[in-house]
Amino acid sequence: MRHSPISSDIPIDDIKPPLTSIGVIGWIKSNLFNGVFNSVLTILTLFFLCKILPPLIQWIFIDSLWTATSVECRSVNGACWSVVSANYRFILFGFFPHEMQWRPLLAMILLISLLLISRNRKFWKPFLLYAWIAGLSSMAILMKGGVLGLVPVESTQWGGLPLTFLLAVFGLTAAYPLGVLLALGRRSKMPAIKTLSIIYIEMIRGVPLVSLLFMSAVIFPLFLPEGITINKILRAQVAIIIFTAAYIAEVVRGGLQGIARGQYEAAESLGLNYVQTMRLIILPQALKIVIPPSVSILISAFKDTSLVVIIGLYDILKTTQTTLANPSWMGFSTEAFFFLACIYFVCCYTMSNYSRKLEKELGTSL
Prior knowledge:
Distance between the termini: 52 Å
Number of helices: 16
CATH architecture of the largest domain: Orthogonal Bundle
C-alpha cells in the first residue's frame, strides 16, 4: 500500500507554498510575467532600459562636472551640474539680498516643518492652529522685515523657491474652502445664490489661468483709483485662488451628489438644521469620497504656479531662466531644468503620497 508523499502527521499550517509563488520570484511571476502580453511588455521595457540607462548614468554621474567653470564644462561630454552649484542661491532665492538669504531659508524651513507636522492626524488639535498662526506670522516677519531689527525687503525682491511655496501653499489653502462653499452654493435651493455660483464656476472654468494672471497684472490696476496700487504677488495669488476654487467646486459637487438621500433624511429626523447637516454628516462623507480627484487638482494647481513667470514674477522657474540667459551658462538648460523638475517631482509626489495615506486612514480606498 502506497503512502502520500506528504506525511499525514504534518500540520497544514506548516506546509509552505512553492518558492515560485512567494517572495521576489513570486512577485515577478504574478506582476511581470503573468501572461503572454505582459511578458512581451516586460521584455521590451527591459530592452529599452538597457539601451537608455547606461548612457544616461554615464552622462549624469560619470562624465559630469559638479564644481567646474562654464568654460571647463564645454570641454566634456557629461552633464554640467556646475550651472546649479554656481547659481543655486539665485535660483532658490532670486533677488533677495545675498547677505540676508538666511531669512527666506528659515521661512521655508518653518513652512515645511508645519506641513510635515500637519500630515500626522494625531496633531490635528487646537494647538496646531496656534502653531500655524505663529509660524505664518514669523514667516511674514522674516520675509518682509522692518521689525525686530530686520532690514525691510520689498516684495519685488522676493523670488525663487520661497515665492513658489508661498503662491502654492496659500493659494491651495484658500482655494479649497472657497471651492466647498461654491459647491454648496451651486446645489442651494435659493435661486440667486445658485445662479451666482453657476456663473462664477462656468466663467472661471471657461478661461485659462494665463488670462486671469494677465487680468490681475494688467487690467485690474486700471480700475483702481489713482495713487492706489496692490502688490503684484497678491494679485497673482488671488488669481490662482479663484481659478483653483472653481475646479475644486465641481469635484466637491460630485461628492455631494454621491451621498444617498437617506443621509439627508436621517439628519432631518434628528432635527439638525442645514448648517449642522452639512458640517456633521454630509460634507465629511463627501470630502472623503473626492480625496483622489481633489488632490489631482491641487497638484495641477501647484504646477500651474509656474505660469506667474509670464507676468514678471521671479518664481523658481523665472530665476532658472534668468540664470540660463547669462552667456556664461547658455547651453546648459538640460541640467538646470532637470534640477527644477526634481524639485517639482518631490513636492508633487509628497502630496500624492499623503493623499494615499489619508485615504487609507479614512478607509476610502477601494
